[in-house]
Amino acid sequence: MTQPEQREITLKDISQKVTGWFKYLWSKWLLILITGITGGAIGLGYAFFAKPEYTGSLTFVLSSNSSGGSLASLAGQFGFNLGMNNDDAFAGDNIMELFRSQKIIKSSLFRKVPGTNTTLINLVAEKGQMPEGWQKYPSLKNVYPFPEDAGKLTPVQDSLVSEIHDYLLKENLLIERPDNKLSFYKVSTTSGDERISCYLTNFIVEEASKFYIETKTKSAKDNLAMLQHEADSLRTLLGGTITSTAAEVDKTFNLNPAYQVQRSGAQQGQFRATALATAYGEVVKNLEIAKITLQREAPLYQLIDTPKIPLKMEKPSKLISLIVGGLLAGFLLVMFLTAKYIFKISYGE
Prior knowledge:
Largest sheet: 5 strands, antiparallel
Structural class: alpha+beta
Helix content: 55-70%
Order of helices and strands: HHEHHHHHHEEHHEEH
CATH architecture of one domain: 2-Layer Sandwich
Number of helices: 11
Strand content: 5-15%
Number of strands: 5
Shape: elongated
Distance between the termini: 32 Å
């Protein structure tokens, strides 16, 4: 059997094919030009008719160890251990998950839009044309508008709120940490209504920060309140004991030393007063430690940049849309003609 003839591809062959390809495309210059113009017109039309969008961005710094080091050192000088604990349930990426949680977003949606009498969730539903879609289903005809109080939601409305939460996370909300080494966070909302973009961003950050700070300081606040109540009670008891003891002393003034038993009331009162004073001193000391602990637990929270109405309107640039549309249409046609040319020279006409 003879081996099939193998043709070597030379540089001349490649040059001829490339030249032929250029000539082929040149012969189609008018079609390419018309396609490019058409694509540019489509891009320009898109820029004209595209709905404007608004982005509300808020940057803030959040740190749970704002003053713990200095306060712990100060307490340590007096022999107190504040129990520093670096474990934090709301650290790093957990903060962003808190902002994405249904609890925080739901609380934000049921706040009223400033200057109006409507809640943010009704505005979101209206601008998203959601009620029109709900009216198609008999079971959803009376779900809109949502009540002002989230506690009055029906089970169906509550399910729709969950869907709105998922929709906002997918289409509108962006929660990020620009640099993992820093404690800066950024929350942005992009929508076709500047009120939604501005107030949803602000409300989410306000609700999340309030929940975060309350959670971080709850234990310390409860401990401080308990110690304060105990200190107030002991101070009242101590004051009453001192008064009653003084009254007993007055009764036994200039008493015959032979009648010691009558002085027992005053002596017992003095003993109770001493014991109460000692207990009160310990409670006051613990109360001061509790105040330091509360300051340590309070996180550092500071807004850096906040969105305010009016927001900057964002629309596609007409010039860029024209150029990109024309180039993209022309490029796709060239790719199609190239594939057609390769097929032609490979398999013949």
